From TrEMBL:
InterPro entries: CheY-like_superfamily, NreC/VraR/RcsB-like_REC, Sig_transdc_resp-reg_C-effctor, Sig_transdc_resp-reg_receiver, Tscrpt_reg_LuxR_C, WalR-like. This is DNA-binding response regulator. GO terms for biological process: phosphorelay signal transduction system; regulation of DNA-templated transcription. Keywords: DNA-binding, Phosphoprotein, Transcription, Transcription regulation. The modification 4-aspartylphosphate is found at D59. Residues 146-211 form the HTH luxR-type domain. The keyword Secreted does not apply. One of its GO terms (molecular function) is DNA binding.
Length: 217
């Protein structure tokens, strides 16, 4: 896998020996450059927000502030930075926590040099990367969970959906919820986009399946 654009990278690990090893591997690639290093989570946040690298290789378990919390804070401030978790731990708890914090990849420390380069190239293409030694099924579960979160309706949207399913017009729904008909229509359109259903009968069936109304089909 090749990515020709110059890639600026920051290394974060509390062991200098490991950082030196990663640097030696990465800088063999002409398009990959280490622009900074950090030895703990707090230093990582300061360094990465200042330098704005393309990629961070982030140790997950560090004293002071761990890589998960550092990832969360960096991702919140600059979501364009691709963060790859680096860890000895292959448990779902660590992996899920890193991805939830905003990481784009997860590598095990006993992986080989080629996999590190592959991971960096992959995340630079806006694709997730999970270590070959970890069950790929877990990444599928994460994607499904993320997709499910996107489809979750807000409390207001659920109220609107229930009233639509019960046959109320936009005007009637607005009067009940103290909203303008135009606002009701906006909510209805958002609901349709979220759950990918586009007719009133489909919305009604969905509302019944979700327990929002007890109407019989």
């Amino acid at each position: 896998m090749t990515y020709l654009k110059e890639i600026k990278i920051v290394l974060v690990d509390d062991h200098k020996l490991l950082r030196d090893g990663l640097r030696n591997i990465i800088e063999q690639r002409s398009n990959m450059h280490i622009i900074g290093e950090a030895s703990d989570g707090r230093e990582a946040i300061k360094t990465c927000l200042k330098l704005a690298p393309n990629v961070i290789v982030m140790d997950v378990a560090m004293p002071g502030l761990n890589g998960i919390e550092a990832t969360k804070q960096i991702h919140k401030e600059n979501s364009d930075i691709k963060i790859i978790g680096l860890s000895m731990h292959s448990s779902k708890q660590f992996i899920q926590s890193m991805f939830k914090a905003g990481a784009f990849g997860y590598l095990l420390k006993d992986g080989d040099a080629d996999e590190l380069i592959t991971a960096i190239s992959t995340v630079m293409q806006n694709k997730k990367y999970l270590s070959r030694d970890i069950n790929q099924e877990f990444l599928t579960v994460l994607k499904e969970k993320k997709a499910l979160e996107k489809t979750q309706l807000s409390s207001r949207e659920k109220e609107v959906l229930q009233l639509i399913a019960e046959g109320k017009s936009s005007k009637e729904t607005g009067e009940i919820l103290f909203l303008s008909p135009k606002t009701v229509d906006v909510h209805r359109n958002n609901i349709m986009k979220k759950i990918d259903l586009h007719t009133i009968p489909e919305l009604t069936k969905y509302a019944i399946q979700q327990g929002l109304t007890s109407l019989d089909l």
